[in-house]
Amino acid sequence: MGKVVNELSNVPSSSGSATSNITMDKDHDNISYTGQQIAAVLALMVGIWEVLLGLLQMGALLNVFLSDMLISGFTTGVAVHVLTSQIKYLFGIPVTAYSGPLKLIYIYIDVFRKIFDANPGEMLISAFCISLLVFNNEMKPKVKKYTNIPIPIELMVVILGTAASYYGQLHEVYGIRIVGHISTGLPAPSSPPVELLPRVALDAFIIGIVGYTSTFSVAKIFAKRRGYAVDATQELYAQVTA
């Protein structure tokens, strides 16, 4: 979704601003929209598509194509893409953005070319956080014998990382990239610019199908483990309400 917002808003991804005003031409009039407005209308269009698919009972048709082998391959592919997208943050190196066929290969070639430019500070933080998460995952079966209360290790890692970054001045001293200032509160409620619906219709359809496939794949995995059935069409409606 972020890629679509950047493409429609013509705001470079390096700007880091989700609220910057952008200008789009409509009937030869300049109308200013924010990235939040474009994201809102895109989410609205995704919901409209999924409602239509649900009314047409297309969930059952999609279920036919989502075999166990396809789901296994899909989730593995998603994991590879997610890992690849985080490589530049794990090593603290700038990676060129690629698209199209073989983009994963090009990304890893770029990573290996720049591996000696990696930021040692970011590598140490990445190694520490991953080690902590792996250790927690290995300790879960043992801890479960004594209590059913899960340890919020992910939240603890975020809190520890934020505290270490702030008090250790990691950005200033070691050049570690940080999110920066986050505005407090929520933006005032407003209706999305519905005049943009036709422009985002195709992208919204693709996002809806990919999003539904991802969530339904996870639902089928849990259903297989727990021994219950999932309603493909109901999952469409559930994703819309979410």
From TrEMBL:
<feature type="transmembrane region" description="Helical">
    <location>
        <begin position="149"/>
        <end position="167"/>
    </location>
</feature>
<protein>
    <recommendedName>
        <fullName>SLC26A/SulP transporter domain-containing protein</fullName>
    </recommendedName>
</protein>
<keyword id="KW-0812">Transmembrane</keyword>
<dbReference type="InterPro" id="IPR001902">
    <property type="entry name" value="SLC26A/SulP_fam"/>
</dbReference>
<keyword id="KW-0472">Membrane</keyword>
<feature type="transmembrane region" description="Helical">
    <location>
        <begin position="64"/>
        <end position="83"/>
    </location>
</feature>
<dbReference type="Pfam" id="PF00916">
    <property type="entry name" value="Sulfate_transp"/>
</dbReference>
<feature type="compositionally biased region" description="Polar residues">
    <location>
        <begin position="7"/>
        <end position="22"/>
    </location>
</feature>
<dbReference type="GO" id="GO:0055085">
    <property type="term" value="P:transmembrane transport"/>
</dbReference>
<keyword id="KW-1133">Transmembrane helix</keyword>
<dbReference type="GO" id="GO:0016020">
    <property type="term" value="C:membrane"/>
</dbReference>
<feature type="transmembrane region" description="Helical">
    <location>
        <begin position="38"/>
        <end position="58"/>
    </location>
</feature>
<feature type="transmembrane region" description="Helical">
    <location>
        <begin position="90"/>
        <end position="109"/>
    </location>
</feature>
<feature type="region of interest" description="Disordered">
    <location>
        <begin position="1"/>
        <end position="22"/>
    </location>
</feature>
<feature type="transmembrane region" description="Helical">
    <location>
        <begin position="200"/>
        <end position="219"/>
    </location>
</feature>
<feature type="domain" description="SLC26A/SulP transporter">
    <location>
        <begin position="32"/>
        <end position="239"/>
    </location>
</feature>
<dbReference type="InterPro" id="IPR011547">
    <property type="entry name" value="SLC26A/SulP_dom"/>
</dbReference>
